[in-house]
Design brief:
The protein has 377 residues and is mostly helical. The protein contains 14 helices and four strands. The protein is globular.
């Protein structure tokens, strides 16, 4: 919305700054962060309405004291993310609307799940199969829009980390790619949901991943122009960052940097109140929407496979649950003391803050590896 002030630059020169994605990223982050000032009052309202967390009796005993802690804090994360993106993004960019749509509708699925848990005072909520059906339905519509939109020229090419995009890629049939993309988005969403089991455990790695996608989206969609003097004539030269780093160039994808900044700003604001000991939990509303946002960023920026590294921590959590469930069904034995894996370390005697911080460190290391891949191609 504010970007359109750029059109008034001839009347007020400083408005020219609104054309720059970098400036709007900073302002988006500040806007989302400032909206987190609403949390104290928001938490108070949740306490009044007794919107409290339901804790499993078979989990770590230290978690029983968290019973009744306000949940559904993800509603304010989602509000901050959407509002700040709408204020600072170029609303004529269709990638922005696809990103916001998936994020918002996944949040709606999470809201239904949280509401049922609170209403029934149990930990079951919306059955898993219905979650998946709704998520795949939402992403299916998004894929149809993505490939039918003639303004995007979106391809079904699959690119590989550490390999030059101009030499190594796999061209998939549109249907095969769409199904793969849907699995990436839905899988990331549910992996983040599984990770959200300790105070601040999920939100910090989500913000780190969003920061990594911010860099990738900026590189993948930006052609720098700078003034040069050729034989006494002033002109402009262009520099394609994506081509230089052998990444695929996607026109307009740099506008998703605004969405990444919104995730970071709202995430940092939420972490202030979600850090150990947490005053509020994000609930499935927050984890499913944020996970869906990260998965969407991975697909739209053509970093589907690189996201296995960027979101590696979430992948580890999901694999631990799959491994535990499969092993128990086939052999009757458990691989871990409890899944997801963060509970395994708790039951081994690690203090909750130690598990949280060490998992944060892992997410930062994975982000650095992903960024390093830009020069190893």
């Amino acid at each position: 919305m504010f970007m359109y002030l750029y059109e008034l630059r001839d009347y007020f020169a400083p408005f020219n700054v609104f054309r720059y994605v970098s400036f709007r990223c900073v302002m988006t982050m500040i806007t989302a962060l400032c909206m987190s000032f609403m949390y104290p009052r928001f938490i108070g309202k949740l306490l009044e309405r007794q919107v409290g967390q339901v804790v499993r009796d078979d989990g770590p005993q230290s978690h029983l004291k968290k019973r009744g802690t306000p949940t559904m804090g993800g509603s304010l994360i989602l509000l901050s993310l959407v509002v700040s993106t709408l204020l600072w993004a170029d609303l004529s960019n269709h990638y922005v609307w696809i990103f916001l749509s998936i994020t918002t509708f996944f949040g709606a699925v999470g809201f239904i799940d949280d509401y049922l848990k609170i209403k029934e005072k149990g930990s079951k909520g919306l059955p898993g199969r219905w979650k998946l059906i709704l998520q795949f339905f939402i992403t299916g519509i998004a894929m149809v829009v993505l490939f039918q939109d003639q303004t995007l020229h979106y391809s079904s090419e699959l690119y590989f980390p550490f390999l030059a995009a101009d030499k190594f890629s796999l061209s998939l049939p549109i249907i095969a790619y769409a199904l793969f993309a849907m699995v990436v988005i839905v899988g990331t969403s549910n992996a983040v949901n599984l990770t959200d089991g300790l105070d601040g455990l999920a939100i910090a790695p989500v913000s780190v991943a969003a920061g990594t996608f911010l860099i990738l989206c900026y590189i993948g969609g930006t052609i720098l122009q700078f003034p040069v003097n050729v034989d006494g004539v002033s002109t402009y030269a262009s520099f394609d960052i994506a081509a230089y780093l052998k990444m695929p160039y996607i026109a307009g994808i740099n506008e998703l940097c605004i969405g990444c900044s919104a995730i970071i700003g709202s995430g940092i604001g939420f972490l202030w109140f979600n850090s150990y000991p947490a005053q509020v939990f994000m609930g499935d509303l927050g984890s499913l929407s944020l996970g869906g946002a990260l998965g969407t960023l991975a697909v739209l920026s053509k970093n589907e496979l690189l996201s296995l590294i960027i979101c590696g921590l979430f992948l580890l959590e999901a694999i631990s649950v799959i491994t535990q469930t499969t092993s128990y069904k086939l052999t009757g034995k458990r691989v871990f003391k409890m899944a997801p894996i963060h509970h395994h370390f708790e039951l081994k005697g690690w203090a909750e803050p130690k598990v949280i911080v060490r998992f944060w460190i892992i997410s930062i290391l994975l982000a650095l590896i992903a960024i390093a891949s830009l020069k190893i191609r």
